[in-house]
């Protein structure tokens, strides 16, 4: 779903498990975008409350190849780096993953767990309803835990 939302073409799994299936997707943007425009597209498509981007990344860098993996995909950094992706949209990235990504010449875009999983979960809920599952409900709250416990000044 994330690959579809970003209009990636010629996608393949980040880490294949069997023919055409696997974890995440990597593909080419319809047309190259600056990192700034890619980040704006992610913001529009997912509407996350916070969007974290590799702090040392050049926002004017032209991005052509993007990897995506909804939910907590930071553990796939090594696999993503082998795909030739320039940017990686996922969530739940920590300090050391941002450092590792920088050292692998990979830009991390962390849009939050909820925002990166919601599109696929919404489609799954629709499919369950279409086949007559008696009760299906998708959470209507963004539970991005980076928002909890912040002290407002």
What's the CATH C level?
Alpha Beta
**Uncertain residue segments:** none
The whole-angstrom Rg is 16 Å
Q: Count every helix, treating DSSP H or I runs of 4 or more residues as helices.
A: 5
The CATH homology group name: NIF3 (NGG1p interacting factor 3)-like
Instruction: Strand order, main sheet: write it out.
Output: 1-4-6-7-8-5
Order of helices and strands: HEEEEHEEHEHEH
The level of helicity is: 25-40%
* Helix-strand makeup class: alpha/beta
The number of distinct β-strands equals: 8
The major beta sheet can be summarized as: 6 strands, mixed
Shape: globular
Number of domains: 1
Architecture blueprint of SSEs:
Layout: H1 2-5, E1 9-12, E2 15-18, E3 21-23, E4 25-34, H2 35-46, E5 52-53, E6 62-72, H3 77-81, E7 87-91, H4 95-103, E8 107-110, H5 113-130
Overview of this protein structure:
By secondary structure, the chain is of the alpha/beta class. It contains five helices and eight strands. Strand 7 (about 85-90), helix 4 and strand 8 form a beta-alpha-beta unit. The strands form two sheets. A six-stranded mixed β-sheet has the order 1-4-6-7-8-5, with helices on both faces. It has a single domain, classed as NIF3 (NGG1p interacting factor 3)-like (Udp-n-acetylmuramoylalanyl-d-glutamate--2,6- Diaminopimelate Ligase, Chain: A, domain 1, 3-Layer(aba) Sandwich), CATH 3.40.1390. It has helices at about 1-5, 35-45, 75-80, 95-105, 115-130, and strands at about 10, 15-20, 20-25, 25-35, 50-55, 60-70, 85-90, 105-110.
């Amino acid at each position: 779903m994330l690959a579809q939302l970003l209009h990636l073409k010629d996608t393949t799994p980040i880490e294949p498990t069997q023919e055409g299936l696997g974890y995440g997707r990597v593909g080419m943007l319809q047309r190259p975008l600056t990192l700034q425009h890619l980040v704006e597209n992610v913001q529009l498509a997912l509407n996350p409350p916070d969007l974290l981007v590799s702090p040392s990344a050049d926002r004017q860098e032209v991005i052509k190849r993007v990897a995506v993996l909804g939910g907590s995909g930071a553990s796939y950094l090594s696999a993503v780096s082998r795909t030739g992706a320039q940017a990686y949209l996922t969530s739940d990235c920590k300090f050391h993953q941002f450092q590792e990504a920088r050292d692998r010449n990979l830009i991390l875009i962390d849009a939050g767990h909820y925002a990166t999983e919601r599109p696929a979960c919404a489609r799954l809920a629709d499919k369950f309803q279409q086949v007559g599952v008696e009760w299906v409900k998708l959470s209507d709250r963004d539970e991005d835990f980076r928002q909890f416990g912040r002290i407002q000044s």
